[in-house]
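>> received
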Amino acid sequence: MVMNQDGEAISGKHSITPAITLHRVLHRSRPEIVVALHGHPHWSTVWAATHQAPPIYDQTSALAGRHLAIFSEYDGVVEETSNAESAVRAIGGMHLALLANHGVLVVAESILHAYFWASTLEWRSRRAWEVSQLGGGIPLKDSVVDQLHDYVLANIHLLPQFEAAIREEIRRDPTLFD
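>> returned
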């Protein structure tokens, strides 16, 4: 989909989501952002409904870092400019946010980073729920989480998850990039 800065379609076979207001406000506020993902993944949205950040219990959950904004002022449709502006203020300089009672927002400097942050948040959310079902656990120390996140930032180009996901999508739809 190609659109102009006002969110109007120029070309493409897909429609523009009403959530485009959130994207437009975000990109105006944070011009360094290249990719913004907004969605409703199962496990992350469950945690968004609790207005709580899922604890980090394992190495994979730590890879996206410990900084997760929680936007708990959601009070209407996402296409309302005031809601979008509040969500952008809540995420601040972070790259991950739970939109309470709604979904998630992931911002990044590349598609690779956005994919990695989003998939790691979903992993973290599922793992935290699983651990909670056993009565809880002991979260990783912040220093360990920070160390793992720093490692990913320095070595993300070496991680195979994104390329594997793209290959799978191309197998499902060979015309994906046509």
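>> The chain has a mean pLDDT of 88.
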